[in-house]
Amino acid sequence: MGVVEETYHDGVFTLTLNRPEKKNAMSLELLEALYGSLLTAEKKKADLIIIRGAGKTFCSGGDVTEFSESEEPGAKVDSMADFLNRSITWIRRTSAIVVAVVEGLAVGAGLSLSLACDLTIAERKALMNMGYRRIGLTPDGGASIFLPRLVGMKRFNELFFLSRNITMEEAKEMGLVNLVVDEGELEERVAAVIGDLKAQPMETTARAKELVNLSLWQGLGTHLDRERLYVSDFAAKPNFQERLKQLFRKG
User: Fold this and answer.
1) pTM, 2 dp
2) What is the mean pLDDT of the chain?
């Protein structure tokens, strides 16, 4: 089984991040596979794309073990940010409706991925956290453009500087998720949303997303490039490796 699993049925392409033993942490291999799967969805002309995680966890962020084991962590993070940004850009530009299904954790780049999607359905017990400051990194994957424009500067600063958990009730209030459902109802509600989306005409989707992008995410590509520059720069500093060691000692 691959690190990203794919299924396609009746216009719906489902991508499942498949590293449950790592809480679907984003390794370079996973990020490359995620982008490749999105390109496959494009070839199949999927109307709907579902992104979710195996093992009842969406994504715990970047793989800190891979960071710590790299001889050149700055270069490693730069490569990972490159593929993450390709996926984020693709999600915003595709005419397909992209839905994130969040269970367990959506941390760091996992949170960024969910923010880039058009809709997010979350299991009630899930938690979100920016997480970057805990290991001495700046945001990536569009988090520093998506989040402040959704919640405002003061709330963004609170979530980044304090790195506190966000419950799904709070996430819904802030506009980070659309639906919050109980665990036993998740699959039923996801299927219902897919049915509702498929029941409506799809020909306006591309233009509607374009208008939202022009309204809210002008300059996204330039912003992603700046995020990538900063996060890879901080990852190359000795302090980053020391924070990772402290993290592993705590674990």
Assistant:
1) 0.96
2) 95
